[in-house]
Design goal:
Blueprint lengths: L8 H12 L6 H32 L7 H49 L3 H6 L2 H43 L1 H7 L2 H39 L1 H6 L3 H29 L1 H22 L7 H42 L20 E9 L5 E10 L4 E6 L5 H8 L7 E6 L2 E2 L5 H7 E4 L8 E2 H6 L7 H10 L3 H4 L9 E2 L8 H13 L5 E5 L7 H15 L3 E5 L11 E6 L2 E6 L1 H7 L2 H9 L8
Parallel strand pairs: 3-10, 3-11, 6-9, 9-10
Antiparallel strand pairs: 1-2, 1-4, 4-5, 7-8, 11-12
Length: about 600
């Protein structure tokens, strides 16, 4: 589930470059923040030099030159106070940049998800997608907010410290350069192993989200079939794997982060004091220089320690970014449409030898051909898995097909802009989806050009106004997630109203009356008849009684049209349709 190959050093470098590319729109602000950062580093470097000057030049018994000492003290206090304010503003600017970058990245990811084809969602758990949009982008935000700023600040400080040490004592500064290969080796070792561990950790977290999303979406079925213990065990198993992955990371951090750096720091102090001790046999050692070097060594290792502590966040961010970029690079997009000005006028639909497969191996539709003339109703019937919904999926351009063609008014469905298709084709599903909001917003679908009168007219047309007017808040009645507080029939009526509000030329009904009770069905059948008048209608139906007046009924079996004709013709043929009709009406014959 959601497994990714191991990230090599080259992969990590590419990901880091791509992350840094998000900084380009903020060049001016970054330059200003770096200037402020440079000022703070200068203050950190100059401070020890002032104290060194005081110790070596003025810390003498019986000597108190007021002017120079006041000047040194004033300069030191001014630097420290200035650093406080400058640090505040430079950190504020870096944080603002980081938050703006993540804001843009989340918009990019969400936009990408909206443009992905249904094939992608068929093979990817919803929880995994949620994890990438939320958890993974949050991990990247942490990198920009703390890691990148910390890395830059540490780099500036290390350079400044080395410049100061070379000014004070070039030989000793050269000796301390030997520390850099040791630190580099520690960092490289950490990155090598942590990328594997953190990748495993992110994948476990993604699995947790996927299992949680599945449980929440199927809660009614879980409780109905008493599957709580099984789901709990499965969740516990994934959670245990996540805990083990986290424990491996903690062990590695405990070894290679601060303890290893502290050991190198101790070695550096030993080298430093040993150098001064050996030098003292032949030359006078200035105490101020010792103080300055000890202070610089400390200030050198403190940012290194911070960098190492943030490396764990950095590695998590790199792994998270790889998952986000994989989503952004996903090529399973919605079917492309030609940029033409073709318009749907009459609504004539033609399927010409259409063959289709979801996985590229097994054909679910085989040489489907039929014609639906303007104003006619073509009904699709057949057992589960016969290909009825696949025909609608292709007509609505949810999936791309390679063999055959689908024509609307004599032009390929691929030649119409997506907007033209969506504005002229109305779809009502068996299980309608209602958005969070209210009844009115679910009918209008935030189309501000649609007036309140048009919303109410659409509801009256399908007789949804009967139950809407009985609600406490009427059209302003609150709709919770997926419309769970309404009955199936009420949700379906709202879906009918939503479809009719756009006045489509082509009507697509996917078992639209399957979840409506008999009394409600009788009431809306008359509305359906009005809805179909003047519109080309493609209707999937399990209840054969709802499509007896269709001009053409196609009987599908294993992806092929095995029978076609109107209701009377199919009954007279004594074929599969005839058997389905007898079974639905409770009539048993020996021939069945």
């Amino acid at each position: 589930m959601d497994q990714q190959p191991k990230l090599t050093n080259k992969d990590q470098s590419i990901i880091l470059k791509r992350l840094i590319s998000y900084l380009k729109p903020h060049k001016k602000v970054i330059a200003f923040a770096l200037f402020l950062l440079g000022l703070t580093v200068i203050g950190d470097v100059v401070g020890p030099i002032l104290i060194k000057t005081f110790i070596d030049d003025y810390l003498i018994v019986g000597n108190f030159p007021t002017g120079p000492l006041v000047g040194l003290a004033s300069a030191y206090i001014f630097i420290q106070i200035s650093n406080i304010f400058i640090s505040y503003f430079q950190l504020l600017k870096f944080q603002e940049i980081a938050l703006k970058i993540i804001q843009q990245m989340r918009i990019d990811v969400f936009t990408k998800v909206q443009n992905l084809g249904l094939r992608y969602f068929d093979k990817t758990p919803a929880g995994s997608i949620v994890s990438r949009v939320t958890n993974d982008t949050e991990a990247i935000k942490d990198m920009f907010v703390s890691v990148l700023v910390g890395f830059v600040q540490s780099a500036f400080l290390v350079v400044g410290v080395y410049i100061a040490m070379f000014i004070l004592n070039a030989k000793l500064a050269l000796v301390t350069l030997f520390l850099l290969p040791i630190l580099f080796l520690i960092i490289r070792t950490y990155r090598r192993y942590s990328s594997v561990f953190y990748q495993d950790l992110r994948e476990r977290l993604s699995q947790l989200n996927a299992k949680l999303a599945e449980s929440l979406q199927g809660m009614s079925m879980i409780q109905a079939f008493r599957q709580e213990p099984r789901l709990k065990d499965e969740f516990n198993d994934i959670n245990e794997q996540h805990w083990k992955a986290g424990k491996r990371n903690i062990k590695m951090d405990s070894l290679l982060l601060r303890p290893a750096i502290d050991l190198v720091y101790a070695l550096a102090l030993i080298m430093l004091l040993s150098y001064f001790g050996i030098t003292s046999f032949s030359n006078t050692i200035e105490v101020g220089v010792i103080y300055a070097f000890v202070t610089y060594i400390d200030r050198f290792f403190e940012p290194i320690n911070q960098v190492m502590q943030r490396l764990s966040i950095f590695q998590q961010a790199i792994v998270a970014a790889s998952r986000v970029f994989k989503l952004l690079d996903e090529e399973e997009l919605v079917p492309t449409q030609a940029n033409t000005n073709a318009k749907i006028v009459a609504g004539k639909i033609e399927f010409n030898n259409v063959t289709f497969s979801y996985d590229g191996q097994t054909d679910v539709l085989k040489n489907i051909s039929f014609t639906a003339n303007p104003g006619e109703t073509v009904a699709l019937v057949g057992h589960t898995g016969s290909g009825k919904s696949s025909i609608i999926n292709l007509l609505m351009r949810f999936y791309e097909f390679e063999q055959g063609d689908i024509l609307i008014d004599g032009q390929s469905v691929k030649d119409f802009k997506s907007q033209e298709l969506r504005e002229t084709m109305g779809l009502v599903l068996q299980d309608p989806f209602l958005f969070f909001g209210n009844i009115e917003s679910n009918i209008r679908l935030h189309n501000q050009a649609m007036t309140d009168e048009e919303v109410r007219a659409a509801a009256e047309f399908v007789q949804a106004d009967v139950f809407i007017n009985q609600l406490p808040d009427g059209y302003k009645q609150k709709v919770t997630e997926r419309g769970s507080t309404f009955s199936s029939g009420q949700r379906q009526l709202v879906a009918f109203a939503r479809t009719m509000a756009t006045d489509p030329k082509i009507l697509v009904l996917d078992e639209a009356t399957a979840n409506i009770d008999t009394e409600t069905e009788v009431a809306i059948q008359r509305s359906l008849e009005k809805m179909r008048q003047g519109r080309t209608t493609i209707a999937i139906a399990h209840r054969l009684s709802t499509i007896q007046d269709a001009e053409l009924i196609l009987v599908l079996h294993q992806g092929e049209v095995v029978e076609r004709g109107n209701h009377q013709q199919l009954l007279a043929s004594k074929g599969l349709y005839h058997k389905m009709y007898l079974l639905q009406n409770g009539i048993v014959e020996e021939t069945i």
